[in-house]
Amino acid sequence: PLYAEQNGSAHVVDALARIEIAEAETRLGQIVRNDLISAMRPAGAEAGDGEYRLTLKADNKTQGIIANTQPAVTRRSMLVTVEFELFKGGKSVLTGTASSRTSFDVIREPFADMQAEKNALERVAHEVSGDIKLRLAAYLARS
After folding, report:
1. Cα–Cα nearest to 69, from 111, 119, 104
2. Are 40 and 17 contacting, i.e. CB atoms less than 8 angstroms apart?
3. How does DSSP assign 22-88, residue by residue?
4. Residues of the chain whose pLDDT is less than 70?
5. Given CB 3.0 to 4.6 Å as the disulfide criterion, which of 19, 41, 60, 111 pairs with 52?
6. pLDDT tens, residue by residue, 116-134
7. DSSP bridge pairs for 65
8. pTM of the entire structure?
9. Sign of the CA dihedral 6, 36, 128, 68?
10. Sign of the four-CA dihedral 8, 12, 17, 18
11. How far is residue 53's CA from residue 94's CA, in Å, rounded to a whole number?
């Protein structure tokens, strides 16, 4: 198993906890970064010795109308893409792109529409962070 103990220590779990994650520049990046920190480090643990460093570049695009289900309701699509790069000792050892798509309703009520878009963004950010964590764990299990 991916998270099994090897030689008396949880190799992947320990390695994930040692990854330092660079500050994010966007709200989407902050959500992904915070999810990764919560998922990879035990409660209250700080980043390790800086052996690993992860950078994230997040982008989201809301696309136009994908369906008009009712005269007052429009369905929109959102695509979130996060490019990530893992460094070890200043050298890039893993790069990748994680993406997810979702949709949400726009009902022409400003506050409700804003909340629907925010909720959609958070949903896909959580999916993307889970994908990134799994890819990092798979890499660390092999190395």
Report:
1. 104
2. yes
3. PPPSSHHHHHHHHHHHHHHS-TTPPP-SSSEEEEEEEEEEEEEEEEEEETTEEEEEEEEEEEEEEEE
4. 1-10, 43-49, 63-70
5. 19
6. 999 999 999 999 999 999 9
7. 76
8. 0.84
9. positive
10. positive
11. 11
